[in-house]
Specification:
5-stranded parallel beta sheet; alpha/beta; FAD/NAD(P)-binding domain; binds flavin-adenine dinucleotide; 3 domains; 476 residues; Fumarate Reductase Iron-sulfur Protein, Chain B, domain 2; 16 strands; globular
Length: 476
């Protein structure tokens, strides 16, 4: 074991510095500063190089974390980047927005007594250094292949699949209804978590690699799915999930009650310099309903827009919320107030909302899935002033078979596209699917994993198609 490692005994955990709260509240820049070289090496050297690396086991991409930590500790950053890029198309993105507290870092063996290695921050440092030093190369293929693949959706699933297929030599065409790539990376996740240049620099590399981007093209809108099937040898559906779950009850239709993604997309567009009619929280009392990543992004966006007050209503307690604890802490630091164990009952106001009437909840017994039920506490109603209410209750898939007029595309009872185990192929031959549209709303790292796996399956399918054609030609 090299002396460089196992330093957790001597060194405490350090995260990259966060910008001052006052400054953070006033702009949309990322809140974490980068490690410098010596801090990155020192923090990487805390890794215990344990026999069974639970960090890798719990990383959906199976990243070789202990190996690239060791390289970073030894100053071998170019090798560290090469190794991390072998299993992950976008380590710079994952280093910023993966919920490491629930994945790699949450399972680090030194976590219990010494606090985990700061894996995400080191991953980000390695990749940002690689970009600065010019080590990140255009993913050009060694040779060209004639077959083409059409991919619907430029989110992390579609982009990861596109890069893998292009590296293998296929002609790759990406279609997206938006004008910029990235899906939720570009328009959902705010830039205080992920600055947009990080996504845009990937776009430039993929374009240079010869991937064709067809932006402002909506399948089922200005282009039919059938035309894609006719044009390409295989098609991948990576469209994510966008149908917002709604909330009913008295006053639910009042003005000033908006879906989370409309709010976030408009804010992101405005920060990118687009002219949009955006709902603005400036000077308003804002109430966000929900407890996931989307809700956390809304409350923190409202703070930055200059809201008078920002409150988050969540029907379970802090321990049971689905969002990352790191993001809750950031939100609390920035002045967001949380009303745990609270649910809305009605929205008050004449034309526009002026208040939310809510009720306290209590956790009950676990149901069949093991999740505790939540029940209202009688007589515990309370009212919160609100001129803007943001609904962040999760997303479901659109009904693709009817929207795209492909009745043969099988979907589950939740509307997610059904794929065959391991092959990622849908019920339609040559049509594959990956990412949130298969899993339901999930994480970027899972979308990358699915995109990579789907690309492998597509390669096998296309290779078999070619050898089938040549066998047939030989027989004729
Ligand atoms: C607000 C918010 C914050 C999040 N924060 C995090 C986080 O911090 N960390 C994390 O790991 N995950 C986070 N997630 C989840 C993560 O963003 C998603 O799991 C991931 O982006 C899914 O990737 P995808 O490629 O499947 O789909 P998407 O990223 O949704 O991309 C789908 C793409 O398909 C395009 N598309 C859809 N329909 C059509 C059509 N008919 N024609 C053409 N194009 C179409 C869309 O325009 C989009 O570009 C967050 C999600 C949200 C909503």
């Amino acid at each position: 074991m090299p002396e460089k490692m196992l330093q957790f005994i001597r060194l405490s955990q350090e995260n990259p510095e966060k910008r001052a709260v006052k400054q953070r509240r006033e702009d949309f820049s990322e809140i974490y500063r980068s490690f410098d070289t010596s801090h990155a090496a020192a923090q990487a050297s805390r890794c215990s190089q344990c026999g069974v690396p639970y960090c890798s086991v719990h990383c959906p991409l199976g990243n070789n974390i202990p190996d690239w930590l060791k390289m970073a500790a030894e100053g071998r950053l170019e090798e560290a980047y090469a190794l991390s890029a072998e299993t992950n198309n976008f380590p710079d993105i994952c280093g910023r927005i993966c919920p490491q507290d629930r994945l790699c870092e949450g399972n680090c063996v030194i976590e219990k007594d010494f606090e985990s290695v700061t894996i995400g921050a080191v991953e980000r440092f390695i990749t940002d250094t690689a970009f600065q030093e010019g080590w990140v190369k255009v993913p050009r293929p060694a040779h060209e292949l004639g077959q083409s693949v059409g991919i619907v959706g430029t989110g992390p699933a579609g982009l990861a699949a596109a890069e893998q297929l292009r590296k293998a030599g296929y002609q790759v065409h990406l279609y997206d209804r938006y004008d910029r790539i990235g899906g939720l990376l570009m328009y959902g996740i705010p830039s205080f978590k992920l600055e947009k240049e990080v996504v845009l620099r990937r776009w430039r590399l993929l374009e240079e690699a010869g991937i064709h981007f067809h932006m402002n093209v909506e399948i089922g809108g200005n282009k039919s799915f059938a035309s894609l099937q006719a044009r390409h040898d295989a098609v991948l559906i990576a469209t994510g999930v966008y149908k917002a779950r709604d909330i009913g009850g008295p006053g639910a239709g009042l003005a000033g009650i908006v879906p989370a993604l409309d709010y976030l997309v408009a804010s992101n567009r405005r920060n990118l310099g687009d002219t949009v009619e955006a709902v603005d929280a400036a000077g308003k009392n804002v109430v966000v309903i929900g407890g996931g990543d989307t809700a956390m992004d809304c409350v923190r966006t409202a703070v930055r827009q200059g809201a008078k007050s920002v409150k988050c209503l969540y029907r379970r307690d802090k321990a049971n919320m689905p969002g990352s604890m790191r993001e809750v802490k950031n939100a609390e630091e920035e002045g967001v107030e949380f009303e745990w164990l609270s649910a809305p009952e009605a929205f008050l106001g004449d034309e526009s909302v002026t208040a939310v009437r809510a009720i306290r909840m209590r956790l009950g017994l676990p149901d069949a899935s093991g999740r505790q039920s939540v029940d209202p506490v009688e007589g515990s109603g309370f009212t919160l002033e609100a001129d803007l209410v943001i609904k962040a209750l999760g997303f479901d898939p659109e009904n693709l078979p009817s929207l795209w007029d492909v009745p043969g595309l099988e979907v589950s009872r939740w509307g997610t596209v059904k794929v065959k185990a391991f092959s990622f192929m849908t019920a339609l031959p040559g049509v594959f699917a990956a990412g949130d549209i298969v899993r339901g709303a999930s994480l970027v790292v899972w979308a990358i994993r699915d995109g990579r796996d789907a690309a492998e399956a597509i390669k096998h399918y296309l290779a078999a198609k070619v050898s089938g054609q040549s066998t047939q030609a030989a027989a004729e």
